[in-house]
Amino acid sequence: MASAETAAEHERILREIESTDTNCIGPTLRSVYDGQEHGLFMDKLEGRIRNHDREIEKMCNHHFQGFVDSITELLKVRGEAQKLKCQVTETNQKLQNDGKELLTSMDELRQCRLQQRNIATTVDKLTHCLPVLEMYSKLQEQMKAKRYYPALRTLEQLEESCLPQAGSYRFSAIMAENISRLRTLIRDVSMSDLKDFLESIRKHSDKIGETAMKQAQVQIARDNAVTSQQRSASGRRIRKEVCSGTEVDRKESNPFSEKDSGILDVEDEEENEIPGAQDLVDFSPVYRCLHIYTALGARDTFENYYRKQRRKQARLVLQPHSNMHETLEGYRHYFNQIVGFFVVEDHILHTTQGLVNRAYVEELWELALSKTIAALRTHSSYCTDPDLILDLKNLIVLFADTLQGYGFPVNQLFDMLLEMRDQYGEILLKKWNQSFRQILDQDNYSPIPVASPEEYQRITGQFPFQDPELDKMHFPKKLPFSEFVPKVYSQLKEFIYACLKYSEDLHLSSTEIDDMIRKSTNLLLTRTLSHCLQYAIKKKNVGLAELVQIIVNTTHLEQSCHYLEEFISNITNVPPDTINATKLYGTSTFKDARHAAEEEIYTNLNQKIDQFLQLADYDWMAAQGGGQASDYLSDLIAFLCSTFAVFTHLPGKVAQTACMSACKHLSTSLLQLLLEADVRQVSMGALQQFNVDVKECERFARAGPVPGFQGDTLLLAFIDLRQLLDLFTQWDWSTYLADYGRPTCKYLRVNPHTALALLEKMKDNSRKNNVFAQFRKNERDKQKLIDTVVKQLRNLIASNQA
Fold first, then answer.
1. Which of 75, 661, 705, 756 has the fewest CB atoms within 10 Å distance of its CB?
2. Structure pTM?
3. Pick from 164, 345, 401, 144: nearest CA to 258
4. Where are the alpha helices (DSSP H) in 448-483?
């Protein structure tokens, strides 16, 4: 189809060349060179020339014989020429006779000359009037085509040069009267176009800003590709595309008419090409109105109006929606509008002379910056999702980089991002608090069974664990810690990554990023994880086995703290031994948790002992003691033996401390049981049974339920009880009273208050139940002895108090 049209066009051009004078052939040939088929036309032209050559040759061959015949006839005409000469002579004579008629004709010619002068005068007048009429006609066409600035120029030319030369004619007066009306019309129409333009860019500032931010994002991606080994580039900025050229250049390049004011359709743009602001917006209404008002001498009025309207639009743009904080798109729409507004102002600043100046734009930016930061502080405070905060931070960074690329200062935005970092950290701490609690609640607090090397590699890949002795063992085997150790360690690393993500693109140094991550991690360790561990330790129904496993787990987590230090140093490229580098508090955190678990073990052991002691049912009036330990005590000893067998996994001297604490508590509780106020009387038989139970406790201590005690160290827990019972069962009061207060006293650990309280219980029992009935002949002496001892003990107590 295209080739047929080209052939027809070439045929038309050839016919035009054949039928046109050579002086007018230029435009025809010009159209050929402007086209794309120049070679094809030359081929056709050469073919046409060959055809004409052949036709000329045929014509010459055809008429050659006629030429010969014509020569022959011409010779014959010679005679006829002689005759013609005679006729000419006669004609000349007749012409002389007719000269009289010529005089008449000359008179007529004079009249014609007069008419010709009158016509020349008329033509001269018309020559001066026609330019005015043509100019006015041109003015009407420009007004009809809405080309108001050229119309204004035509109007000035008409008023200043054409009308004065035309003379005083009626049509000139009418034109002069219409000039002021046309000026007012042009001014009003151009102002109407400007209002349409302002309304259009207000509606479409979101699209303009979105495009500018996409340009910034593409530029940032290119910068990151060039500096891929650096985490943040300090010199990364957007290169603005400054549009230059006159209004004529814009009209030539703009496919839209002057009446279009607003956003141009960019849906057909290629995906790889992001249009600039000048491609999205037709700024011709602004330029046209500016030129028109300048030509009318009202530039100041136009500038004031434009700036006032844009200030109003700025306040509307800077007013966020009430639900902006709910989604990222709300923030994106808000930022797009602001960027779109200032992209337009920056373009106006660089493409007009004085319509807006730098001071005006900076004033608007200061207003926008303060309101934007206030809005972001308010709305971001409602956010509880760390992912949304992180996305918002990235959006703010893109927003800041975009505007910084246009020359606007954005340091306050980055300062606000540093403020938001604390909020982001608090939200992360809340999220990780839930994660830690879930991990601790779901843990079985049992060593991890490992059945294969692959499973072992998987776990050690999550948590840095090395144990040469365990490596030598065959599968299946058990790791000393439970599931929550690798899970907690992984969560710590995830938290560090989350902190690192926020610190990216904030134009911070590696040292600042490292310090920020370490401080946030310390908060996670000392506050969140510490509280979660305390929660797990203090939780109701937590068993001793679980507490033992928590101690083992916290020990391994404590040992892994230096790996976390190295991990942070690797991702921030800051050596851990840098001066003023913040140290992680993980060691102290896990130590505190372990100590709390140890204290909880001691408390739980004591509570278990108290539960067993509540089952004690002594017959305090028994005549004689049994030969075996009480059932409750046997059960208690069995429980302690099984419990301390589990304690072999505990590090350090925790098991020894727990064992010593349990024995001391048992000794103290037994003594309190013996001295409690509800027990008003105690027989010697009951005391003997009590002594058997204490001996069972001493046998347990002597057996060494927990390794590591030197000699009979554990027996010292029962020394107070042992000396008290020996004093009463052996009735060795003379030695006690004689040696009291001496370092070598046999009964050094017996408190006189305790001895007096127990002795009074036995005294009461002696009076009422005749405890010493088997010694009837010595009964009275025994009673006197008890009274004497009681009296001496009271004197001893009184002397010590004095």
1. 75
2. 0.65
3. 144
4. 453-462, 468-472
What is the C-alpha to C-alpha distance for residues 567 and 553, in angstroms, rounded to an integer?
Answer: 20
- Distance CA(186)–CA(258), nearest Å, equals 14
* Distance of alpha carbon 41 from alpha carbon 7, whole angstroms: 8
Residues in the chain, total: 802
How far apart are alpha carbons 373 and 417 in whole angstroms?
10
User: Which residue ranges form the domains of the chain, and what is each CATH number?
Assistant: 3-118 (no CATH), 169-224+277-408 (no CATH), 426-551 (1.10.357.30), 615-801 (1.20.58.670)
- For residue 489, the model assigns a pLDDT of 92
DSSP 708: T
Structure tokens at 386: 């760390």
3-state SS class at 687: helix
Residue 116 corresponds to which amino acid? Answer: Q
Per DSSP, the three-state class of 769 is helix
pLDDT (tens digit, 9 = 90+) per residue, 67-81? 888 888 887 887 788
- Cα(682)–Cα(765) distance, rounded to whole angstroms? 6
Question: Apex CA 22: angle with CA 18 and CA 26, to 5°?
Answer: 100
119-177 tens-digit pLDDT: 888 787 777 777 777 777 777 787 777 777 777 777 777 766 666 666 666 766 677 66
Q: What is the DSSP letter of 355?
A: S
Percent of the chain with pLDDT over 90: 7
* Beta-carbon count within 10 A of 164 CB: 10
Q: Which two tokens stand for residue 22?
A: 């050579």
Average pLDDT, integer, range 555-563: 86
